[in-house]
Amino acid sequence: MAYTVISTLQLLSAMIISIIMVEYFRQYQRPYLNYWAKSFAYLSMFLVSSLLLSYLSTQGLAYHSLSMYAISAIKMVAGFLQILYLFIGCYALTKRRSDNNINENLLVIVCSIFAMVFVSIYAFDPDGALIRHIIRSSSRYIIGGLCFIGAAIYLYNTLTLRNSGQALVIMAFLALGTEMTVLGALSMTQYFELLSPLVSYHGAVELFAYSVLGLGLVMWLLDSERKQRQAIRNRLNYLGNHDPLTGLVNREGFEQAITQWQSAQSQQEDKLKVVLFGIDKFKRINEAGGVKQGDEVLVSIAARFQNMPHNAFAKARLTGDVFACLINDSASTPEQLERVRKTLSNTIHLANQSFHIDISVGAAKLEPFKSPETVMLNAQRALQQAKEAGGARTVVFSDLTPEISNTIEIENELRKALKNQEFILFLQPLYDVNKNDIQGFEALVRWQHPVRGVLSPVEFLPYLAQLHLMPKLDIWVLNEATRLLSAWRHSNAGKLSLAINLSTDGLNDNDYITRVVELSKSLGRDINKLHIEITETSAMKSIQSGKLNITKLHDLGITISLDDFGTGYSSLNYLKSFPADKIKFDHGFIKEMLENESAEKILRALVPLCQNLGKKVVAEGIETQQHLNMAKQIGFDQVQGYFFAKPMPVDVALGLLKKAM
User: Is the pTM of this model over 0.70?
Assistant: First the structure.
């Protein structure tokens, strides 16, 4: 009776632990959880078989009968497989192996054959009851015990950062291994008579040990996932503010440094200059030696950049060939900047080749109450002026330079363009990564200039943002997108989504939100086909009001996409809190993943994490077949980029859709 009660409790405990492991596997998709779930499932099968054998024996069924042999075979195979899966689960966790790295089927076959050999010895001999029982019991006790002891020793020697869960698992393995080995040894020696009193305690010991083991495995899992998430979070925080190639601060970190200085210095008279350093004709280096050699040149320049005078700080790499820093105004006269420029322009020697480097410098004053965007734009103008003048020179922006009249002219033209609706939409298709069919389009705005023709966004969006005219353009794009969706309703494009971009100012514009509410009524159920994309930088700059408005849009049924993920703060906290349905990874990640192992590892960690949070994941900037193949391997849901199609007029995009269908 005591044996039946203890075995039943063992069975319930094993089943509960198996169910817990299955649920954790569904949540985390870790191979070792699958192994552990199978281990405790086989333990449950082992215990069910044991109870059934015990019951049938009380009913007078002989152990050497065919029925009892079949049940004993199931019991023996299940017992060995339980040990196998428990061991390889821990091995997979310590080695971080995937399913493909462990030949599971081969191990199962070998283990099953091994078990069948033991269960078949004296299987049908009526006079071999004692030796049959000894062989079946002692084989699993000794082999299982030695495996558990070996697993405990292996884990103790392998794990460097031990936690409470790992300690419990090691102790449970050691206790089970010692107890099973002793019982197995006694069953094969002249001390066999000592086995009987010990066996009565065996079930209770195993019940306690397996419960401790299950608890330890769960604690180990949770601690492992916590550490992995923390490592990802730390890496994301670093990438959010640093350039992975050079280790310098990136644009976001540089702008944060400007904002922090302005906050600290708002009551003081100190002045700084934002200084940009651009490599002249850098494209020729990439063309001559390839992108990898170009990266080596950039790293060498970054090393020189780090050794600049101590009064330079917030040293950053803004784009491919543009570096930046902040320098005290009194120590950054044109003559001083020219000396720094010449120092950076020395020849760089790499392996068997030398590169003569010319640097252009553009600088602009940074004052407490002047917006960072304005100062950066002024510094960029100065750098552009230096390059247009032939390069290898220094230009300091002045508020009296002729460029200001050009800005006023552009402002007048943009206000006129908004009034006369000179803007048009181009569409770029979004593809399903596996089916390779069009899922929707992203609407990208162009300026149909009456004199200069079709202009790309980089030629007018910065000015619209500076003039705070972006909300007007956002509303125009919203109206056009709604009109297109309504027109598509009864066509072959009726099932497709249409994504539009929303600026930081537009996100906080109440008129925009009101207009969305109005248009949602006309779209009705088709409102879910309207996708609004918000960059992560915009989301974080408006973290309170922006989140409120994003929630309002989301509640209307609009799909929210977090665009350019990986270029800004990249925080898992707001990834969970912002109601985004789709995450679009920046094209910079995609370009780097073929050459930068860190970028690939980050993507392999983040993509399933985003998907586990219920979000679709999109890869932007797919330009080659290699990019597409890697995107498929990593598990992206959708892709877009020049490899499929460049942005095109609406009628051309619809023509492409007809061909695809």
Answer: no
